[in-house]
């Protein structure tokens, strides 16, 4: 069964074509900020690395609620916006 796993990973290994920085805050930028704080490019990379289908989100806002870092510690996020205006330009937006 283990031999199947690398083949599945190779197919799912999606690489971004380009990257630019966020200029203004949006819901998408907020979620990207949370993934990047936890050490991932975005939701695509998180799902590849952690082998999960669904990321836990707040039902009210749709923002990411909880992420597991690569060292298996967890990051928990608030319902409200966490990416402040001064941090928006740090967020990398990947294009696939």
Automatic annotation (TrEMBL):
Gene Ontology CC entries for this record: nucleus
Any matching Pfam family: Meiosis_expr
InterPro entries recorded: Meiosis-expressed_gene_1
PANTHER family: MEIOSIS EXPRESSED GENE 1 PROTEIN HOMOLOG (PTHR17008:SF1), MEIOSIS-EXPRESSED GENE 1 PROTEIN (PTHR17008)
Role: Essential for spermiogenesis.
Family indicated by similarity: Belongs to the MEIG1 family.
Protein name stated in the entry: MEIG1 protein
């Amino acid at each position: 069964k283990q031999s199947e796993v690398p083949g599945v990973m190779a197919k799912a290994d999606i690489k971004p074509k380009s990257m630019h920085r966020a200029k203004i805050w949006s819901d998408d930028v907020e979620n990207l900020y949370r993934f990047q704080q936890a050490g991932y490019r975005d939701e695509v990379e998180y799902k590849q690395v952690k082998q999960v289908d669904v990321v836990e989100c707040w039902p009210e806002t749709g923002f990411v609620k909880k992420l597991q870092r690569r060292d298996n510690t967890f990051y928990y996020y608030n319902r409200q916006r966490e990416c402040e205006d001064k941090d928006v330009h740090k967020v990398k937006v990947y294009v696939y």
